[in-house]
Write a structure and sequence with these properties.
Rossmann fold, elongated, single chain, 18 helices
């Protein structure tokens, strides 16, 4: 069943005379796979990229207006290469596939991007907009299952589809190869450092007095990546008779140069990103018929070893020189392993054959149940918390206003009480002063009266201190009729 599909990417595709990075090659792979299956595919790129390279055959979008672009699109299905273009304010009303070929958050760790937490939340929100997730290597499935759980998807039937790194078949060019010509190609990234292995190779080449190393690479050709600190091997391996730097070439020119080389080197120290990476450059080497000296931690080692398409090595530089010596000593073995590399690529890493599971999903894909992602649940809970806090603040403000009136009333009462206390203090002070004056005058009077008068006064006063004896006699005397004795 042919469907109208919008393939949305932020990366430059090969075929336009410009260097490309892994995201552009992956977009090209998805495009060729879908078209080979008969789907009507429209490639959609950022307006700035289309204007820069004159790519008028593609549809343009503004990343900030992606929601409006999707709403106006005639597509039946949307396929996003990487998750960040899917950072939308609302859900899409048509099926959405998101391609996740690499662990971007782990890459950002080596870029030293400060906003990792913010990016993780944005990633979960974007992944919650998709119905199906594509992953590139078997190891990545377990990595994405954790994100799927956080984004709210059903782990009982996870919508994860294996879509390996694969490219259209590359027929042998028939060009003559130089078995003593080694190559390393691709964007220089901070999480992969090839210089220890390449230094070991150059030591062998210089000691043997033959062979060359060609390095095709540089920073990302189109985008200034946030926090980018790419490793520049020129600081350790300066150009010379055995080391040649070619820069970033257009993909067509790069593959022409690779098809005349003898051996590719893809050895970098192991880290979390490398263990989960999809190593696109390694698959490019195999398609170009290049046997690969590859790190043991690569997810491709079992396939390469089984096919006899390269040499599996440890990261330690001390163990690499004997391998490079053996390669230089046996040109026929290099040729045999190169032929095996091309056969392996055709059998395992050629589209559309390697992506049949992806195509089967596209044929039957409908809008599925998109549960509320963790980030949206978190946003909702934060909104509810904010609403509750605002209500509580309103209640506290009303209570504070009521209590402010009560406090003002109590303040007035306190002021009145203080005024009364002050008046009482003044009255007490006046009484104390009067008592002092009276006491002083009494003392003066005491000292001035004769002693006998004082005693008589005391006797007189003593009579007034016995009111119970004195008072009954008064009314009796007043009521008795006068007699002659009274006169």
């Amino acid at each position: 069943m042919s469907r109208k599909i919008d393939l949305i990417s932020m990366e430059m595709l090969p075929g336009h005379g410009a260097p490309v990075a892994g995201g552009g090659l992956r977009t090209w792979s998805l495009l060729e796979t879908l078209r080979a299956a008969g789907h009507d595919v429209r490639v959609c790129l950022p307006q700035a990229l289309i204007d820069q390279y004159g790519l008028t055959q593609y549809s343009a979008f503004q990343p900030a207006a992606m929601q409006a672009f999707l709403d106006a699109s005639p597509a039946e299905v949307f396929v996003f290469e990487q998750w960040y273009p899917l950072s939308l304010p609302e859900r899409v009303d048509r099926p959405v596939v998101v391609d996740l070929p690499g662990p971007l958050l782990l890459e950002n760790y080596w870029r030293r991007v400060a906003a990792t937490e913010r990016m993780a939340l944005a990633k979960l929100r974007a992944l919650g907009r998709a119905d199906v997730w594509l992953y590139a290597t078997p190891r990545q499935r377990y990595y994405w299952l954790a994100f799927m759980a956080l984004s709210g998807h059903d782990l009982a039937a996870p919508a994860l589809v294996h879509a390996p790194i694969a490219f259209p078949a590359q027929p042998a060019s028939g060009r003559e190869r130089d078995p003593s010509r080694f190559v390393y190609a691709g964007v220089f990234w901070p999480w992969q450092d090839p210089t220890p292995a390449l230094s070991a190779l150059v030591s062998v080449l210089e000691r043997r007095g033959r062979g060359t190393l060609e390095i095709f690479g540089g920073p990302h050709p189109q985008h200034e990546v946030e926090g980018q600190r790419y490793l520049d091997p020129t600081a350790t391996l300066p150009p010379g008779p055995r080391v040649q730097y070619r820069g970033m070439l257009p993909f067509e020119q790069l593959t022409e140069r690779l098809e005349t080389a003898g051996v590719a080197v893809d050895v970098v120290p192991c880290n979390a990103e490398r263990e989960l990476s999809s190593t696109i450059r390694t698959v490019v080497y195999l398609h170009c018929g290049l046997p690969v000296v590859v790190s043991r931690h690569s997810y491709l080692v079992e396939a390469i070893a089984a096919a006899g398409a390269g040499w599996i090595v440890d990261d330690a530089p001390g163990g690499l020189e004997p391998v490079f010596e053996a390669v230089l000593n046996d040109a026929d073995e290099v040729t045999r392993r190169g032929d095996a590399a091309r056969r392996l690529a055709q059998a395992r890493f050629t589209c559309p054959g390697a992506m049949l599971e992806f195509l089967a999903v596209v044929d039957r894909l409908e809008v599925g149940r998109r549960p509320e992602p963790f980030t949206e649940r978190l946003d909702r809970q934060v909104r509810e918390l904010e609403h509750g806090l605002r209500e509580r603040i309103g209640q506290l403000e009303a209570t504070a206003a009521a209590q402010a009136g009560e406090i003002a009333h109590l303040g007035r009462l306190a002021a009145d009480r203080e005024a009364s206390l002050h008046a009482a203090r003044l009255c007490r002070q006046a009484l104390e002063e009067a008592y002092y004056i009276a006491s002083r005058d009494l003392e003066a009077l005491r000292s001035s009266l004769p002693h006998r008068l004082l005693r008589a006064l005391k006797r007189l006063l003593g009579k007034y201190r016995e009111p119970d004896d004195y008072r009954p006699r008064i009314p009796e005397a007043w009521s008795r009729p006068p007699s002659h004795t009274d006169t």
